[in-house]
Amino acid sequence: MAAAGMGQQWVLVEMVQAFYEAPAYHLILEGILILWIIRLLFSKTYKLQERSDLTPKEKEELIEEWQPEPLVPPVPKDHPALNYNIVSGPPTHIITVNGKECINFASFNFLGLLDNEKVKSAAQASLKKYGVGTCGPRGFYGTFDVHLELEERLAKFMRTEEAIIYSYGFATIASAIPAYSKRGDIVFVDEAACFAIQKGLQASRSNIKLFKHNDMADLERLLKEQETEDQKNPRKARVTRRFIVVEGLYMNTGDVCPLPELIKLKYKYKVRIFLEESLSFGVLGEHGRGITEHFGINIDDIDLISANMENSLASIGGFCCGRSFIIDHQRLSGQGYCFSASLPPLLAAAAIEALNIMEDNPDIFQTLRAKCERIHKALQGISGLKVVGESFSPALHLQLEESCGSREDDVKLLKRVVDYCMDSGIALTQARYLEKEEKCLPPPSIRVVITVEQTEQELDKAASLLKEAVQSVLN
Amino acid sequence: FEQAPMYVAVLTFLGFGVGTIFGYLRDFMRAWGLEKRNVAAEREQQKDFVPLYQDFENFYTRNLYMRIRDNWNRPICSVPGPQFDLMERVTDDYNWTFRFTGRTIKNVINMGSYNYLGFAETDVNALKTVTIELQKYGTGICSTRQEMGSLDKHVELEKLVAKFLGVEDAMVFGMGFATNSMNIPALVGKGCLILSDELNHTSLVLGARLSGATIRIFKHNNMQSLEKLLRDAIIYGQPRSHRAWRKILILVEGIYSMEGSIVRLPEIVSLKKKYKAYLYLDEAHSIGAVGATGRGVVEYFGMSPDDVDVLMGTFTKSFGAAGGYIAGKKDLVDFLRTHSHSAVYATSMCPPVAEQIIRAMKCLMGLDGTTQGLQRVCQLGKNTRYFRQRLHEMGFIIYGNDDSPVVPLLLYMPGKIGAFARRMLEKNIGVVVVGFPATPITESRARFCVSAAHTREMLDTVSTADVLLKLTSDTPLKQHGKICLTCVQCKIPAALKGAVIINKV
């Protein structure tokens, strides 16, 4: 210990001696270096990212100069969608549009339940008991016994395990898809899918792959491509979910999807199917159960069926049905279900009564189909317009055989046809789209809707009137 | 907001930690078949498909939520007025399935429904016009606004809404949630900037995401944070390209539903004017509920409705109906009529619901000849102040502005969430409790919604029940068959906190 202490002292003495013996320039140089280091240590840090090129005065100038766009661009007065057709009174079979009485060929009231007395009295009874609104979402005392009853009835009618109700038709599929498909999952969707599906897909942030409308070969090609991709990265493939989203009866084109082939593809490539049945629920199938009944397919093969109650059931809202394994998930993660007020009970009661009527009178579906066939045939002969849609589809499109050149001109021409028909007592409407937002914009068309209430004379009158209108407008 | 003492935060985390450990244990037992699996399973034929849910996503649902699941989705079988009837529900297997006994629990005091002005009523005189319209129009529309779904009722309603709010024009939609998610994308797009409050509702967040604009979040009601974001945005422009932003839209709510706080409108309006941004105000909870005549936060602060560019609100809360509206200058509404997603693709509002809103609004504006509307608004104000004062006196931590009818009462511990709701139900009071993920993990709360239809006795009952509950939380939850460890922790803060309260009783 003493030796170490002595050793240290010895080194110190040596250092001081060396200090005195060193040459002068050496000392001066080292002194300068030490002073420089001290200066660097205490000077302000220099940040490379700091945009020190703008003075506060310049910042104020920038803020003064910036001019935003106007909140909304001005809308020209003659925009085709600006002036709505105002309907006075209920939009039933005979409809009063803009003061004129017409026969209604434009509302999706397929089964004529809009002014059914039984439905109305069920709604009245519910109004007396529950009032109008539910004042809360499903989770916070917004669940009424009518909602539970409607869910049970729908599940029983569609022969699935469970059903879930939404308070708005658009929100149904737009909330159902993002509940299952997240970022990184893959969805194969038909080109002609409706806007609600497109919004649901956009909200889900998944990879979207469009396949040509009803083209199973195209879909198989995409599936095969995906399979080869998977083989390159099997670990990722094991966790990416895959879905096919199709509609039973397409709103934009009026035809059905080839469901049996889709089921085969489902099991071959292990993809889940989501079926959107807004137009086909209450229309197709022997008892109105939709496209699965139409093709005779086991309903458990479809993972999720979503439909809105605003067409055949003449109520408001939508539902999804399927196995409990799938539907129960939406009760906590369907945004339109958890964060929105529930369906007003009078509308739920009306839907239950409408279901009762559908179950008691299964022959209305046959009648509706017969009417569809009749008008489909009658509309075939019109020169200048072509009929787009299946013969048993109650929502058809009439498109121009040859376009005038621009979409605007087509729209104007079709408007003249529609106005001519409305002046003569048939209420029609053009199919409306948001031109900039749709992925695959369908061509402009007139929408023709067939309901069970229209008589054969009215159907024939409509067909001949359309012929006349087109003649007079195109010449 | 008032902060909780530190030990409360620690105990809350401990509670969640214990719950998580038990969760892992039970998952382990389930995986090894030692415990029954109660969850629905995938089909046999689809067993080799990619699994639909990842196990970890549902961990919280399976283990923590399932224990206290009976406090949500409680079905009722009467009008959601100040008192309602609940259907009695029991569970045989710890909340995995429920069974209705067929009995109803009558006259439960309703502190959970958004019935601020008490328009959820079944009085025959009040609903006379609604009954007539229902008979005339039926329940459905079966068409969109732009096609054949625009009824004269909608035109009447829109004019009335515009008059009520004091703006040029208004447009109504069928669903409140959808109003936000379908119109924000129509107003802003790529190249625009959205500045949204931290605690905005899901519908605003969804609308902002769907629009494709860049979103930046500012701290809740914090004007410095908002100003800094505005300045940075204008000075530095879009990220990377430094081009100027096309528009800046500020998204705020009138009353925030989980905190009960009211937005600082005058300051936001002055900021907006200084920096030339646009303001979108979502008055879902505040329309009808604040303001001298029920016209919302704009009136509450004494400002002119022209200061706000887009006034949005819903009819579900104060008017006892369903649907939403957007009001503002005529240009704005015309643009929405042509370009809103809802006008083109979604069904319009159904006529009886529109009539309910018309009659409620006429009542509020005094157009039906009575002063009932004003009376309701005054009653709501009185009830709110009284209730908040009582709870404050009793030493609870309450969030929110003194005038907001949404009263969140902080519970903090996960064990208390379930205990509080169940014990209140035993006392015939229906409350709403919220926990993670709707609120931050340490701030679970019970939320009371004061209504103009509540009487003073009802409010007294509720506030005294709260006190008794806090004191007597020494009864452990025996429903699980084993004593819930988190309840042991509940005992401690009540005793420590309530020296004053114990003396009162």
UniProtKB/TrEMBL annotation, chain A:
<keyword id="KW-0443">Lipid metabolism</keyword>
<dbReference type="GO" id="GO:0046512">
    <property type="term" value="P:sphingosine biosynthetic process"/>
</dbReference>
<keyword id="KW-0012">Acyltransferase</keyword>
<dbReference type="InterPro" id="IPR004839">
    <property type="entry name" value="Aminotransferase_I/II_large"/>
</dbReference>
<dbReference type="InterPro" id="IPR015424">
    <property type="entry name" value="PyrdxlP-dep_Trfase"/>
</dbReference>
<dbReference type="InterPro" id="IPR050087">
    <property type="entry name" value="AON_synthase_class-II"/>
</dbReference>
<feature type="transmembrane region" description="Helical">
    <location>
        <begin position="163"/>
        <end position="181"/>
    </location>
</feature>
<keyword id="KW-0663">Pyridoxal phosphate</keyword>
<keyword id="KW-0812">Transmembrane</keyword>
<feature type="domain" description="Aminotransferase class I/classII large">
    <location>
        <begin position="101"/>
        <end position="464"/>
    </location>
</feature>
<feature type="transmembrane region" description="Helical">
    <location>
        <begin position="24"/>
        <end position="42"/>
    </location>
</feature>
<keyword id="KW-0746">Sphingolipid metabolism</keyword>
<dbReference type="GO" id="GO:0005783">
    <property type="term" value="C:endoplasmic reticulum"/>
</dbReference>
<comment type="pathway">
    <text>Lipid metabolism; sphingolipid metabolism.</text>
</comment>
<comment type="pathway">
    <text>Sphingolipid metabolism.</text>
</comment>
<dbReference type="InterPro" id="IPR015422">
    <property type="entry name" value="PyrdxlP-dep_Trfase_small"/>
</dbReference>
<keyword id="KW-0472">Membrane</keyword>
<dbReference type="GO" id="GO:0004758">
    <property type="term" value="F:serine C-palmitoyltransferase activity"/>
</dbReference>
<dbReference type="GO" id="GO:0030170">
    <property type="term" value="F:pyridoxal phosphate binding"/>
</dbReference>
<dbReference type="InterPro" id="IPR015421">
    <property type="entry name" value="PyrdxlP-dep_Trfase_major"/>
</dbReference>
<dbReference type="Pfam" id="PF00155">
    <property type="entry name" value="Aminotran_1_2"/>
</dbReference>
<comment type="function">
    <text>Component of the serine palmitoyltransferase multisubunit enzyme (SPT) that catalyzes the initial and rate-limiting step in sphingolipid biosynthesis by condensing L-serine and activated acyl-CoA (most commonly palmitoyl-CoA) to form long-chain bases. The SPT complex is also composed of SPTLC2 or SPTLC3 and SPTSSA or SPTSSB. Within this complex, the heterodimer with SPTLC2 or SPTLC3 forms the catalytic core. The composition of the serine palmitoyltransferase (SPT) complex determines the substrate preference.</text>
</comment>
Automatic annotation (TrEMBL), chain B:
<dbReference type="GO" id="GO:0005789">
    <property type="term" value="C:endoplasmic reticulum membrane"/>
</dbReference>
<keyword id="KW-0012">Acyltransferase</keyword>
<feature type="domain" description="Aminotransferase class I/classII large">
    <location>
        <begin position="106"/>
        <end position="462"/>
    </location>
</feature>
<dbReference type="Pfam" id="PF00155">
    <property type="entry name" value="Aminotran_1_2"/>
</dbReference>
<dbReference type="InterPro" id="IPR015422">
    <property type="entry name" value="PyrdxlP-dep_Trfase_small"/>
</dbReference>
<keyword id="KW-0808">Transferase</keyword>
<dbReference type="InterPro" id="IPR015424">
    <property type="entry name" value="PyrdxlP-dep_Trfase"/>
</dbReference>
<dbReference type="GO" id="GO:0046512">
    <property type="term" value="P:sphingosine biosynthetic process"/>
</dbReference>
<comment type="pathway">
    <text>Lipid metabolism; sphingolipid metabolism.</text>
</comment>
<feature type="transmembrane region" description="Helical">
    <location>
        <begin position="6"/>
        <end position="25"/>
    </location>
</feature>
<keyword id="KW-0812">Transmembrane</keyword>
<dbReference type="GO" id="GO:0046513">
    <property type="term" value="P:ceramide biosynthetic process"/>
</dbReference>
<keyword id="KW-0443">Lipid metabolism</keyword>
<dbReference type="GO" id="GO:0017059">
    <property type="term" value="C:serine palmitoyltransferase complex"/>
</dbReference>
<dbReference type="GO" id="GO:0030170">
    <property type="term" value="F:pyridoxal phosphate binding"/>
</dbReference>
<keyword id="KW-0746">Sphingolipid metabolism</keyword>
<dbReference type="InterPro" id="IPR015421">
    <property type="entry name" value="PyrdxlP-dep_Trfase_major"/>
</dbReference>
<dbReference type="InterPro" id="IPR001917">
    <property type="entry name" value="Aminotrans_II_pyridoxalP_BS"/>
</dbReference>
<dbReference type="InterPro" id="IPR050087">
    <property type="entry name" value="AON_synthase_class-II"/>
</dbReference>
<keyword id="KW-0256">Endoplasmic reticulum</keyword>
<dbReference type="GO" id="GO:0004758">
    <property type="term" value="F:serine C-palmitoyltransferase activity"/>
</dbReference>
<keyword id="KW-0472">Membrane</keyword>
